């Protein structure tokens, strides 16, 4: 009867009642209570001993295999998640493409800023021209007001001269004449 078992990473093969060892991985973790050698044996070893020692070792082996299965499943899930995420990772080509796009965008923005600056300069020049014209008009109005004040001052000065010559001088002469008359008459 031919068959094979995988016992704690050591593969044992039975062929016509002869046991051969095919792998030497992890001999120190072996659950068998006899050393495995490269010599050929006539009878298969008692791997599944019915005694307490074998049962305990099989339970430990079963627990370890269960833990390995859980850990393997978790690793598989983590690898699947990382694989899914890695599809969205940026490559050097993607980064270079973004840099090139940023360079083009920067040039476009600088061009737009230059054009905007020129438009603003033209608007400020037009506003300056409008303000200059408005200030000239305001200055002209102030000059007219100043001329009117000068005219009014001339009229007031002429009126003062008129009052002085028409009213003040004759009144002053009358007061002087009355004073002279009263002093001279009283003295005489």
Comma- or semicolon-separated keywords:
188 residues; mainly alpha; 3-stranded antiparallel sheet; 2 helices; disordered N terminus
SSE blueprint:
Blueprint: E1 3-7, E2 10-15, E3 18-21, H1 52-86, H2 92-187
Antiparallel strand pairs: 1-2, 2-3
Could you explain the architecture of this structure?
The chain is mainly α. Helix content is 70%, strand content 8%. It is built from two helices and three strands. The protein has a three-stranded antiparallel sheet, with no helix packed on it. Strand 2 and strand 3 form a beta hairpin. It is rod-shaped. The N terminus is likely disordered.
- The percent range for strand residues is 5-15%
Multimer state: single chain
Spatial ordering of strands, largest sheet: 1-2-3
Give the rounded overall mean pLDDT.
Answer: 77
Distance linking N and C termini:
186 Å
Largest sheet: number of strands, sense, barrel closure: 3 strands, antiparallel
Number of strands: 3
Low-pLDDT residue intervals, each spanning 5 or more residues: 1-37
Helix run count:
2
H and E order:
EEEHH
What is the gyration radius calculated from CA atoms? 61 Å
What is the approximate shape? rod-shaped
User: What class would the helix/strand composition place it in?
Assistant: mainly alpha
Provide a brief overview of the structure.
The protein has 188 residues and is mainly α.
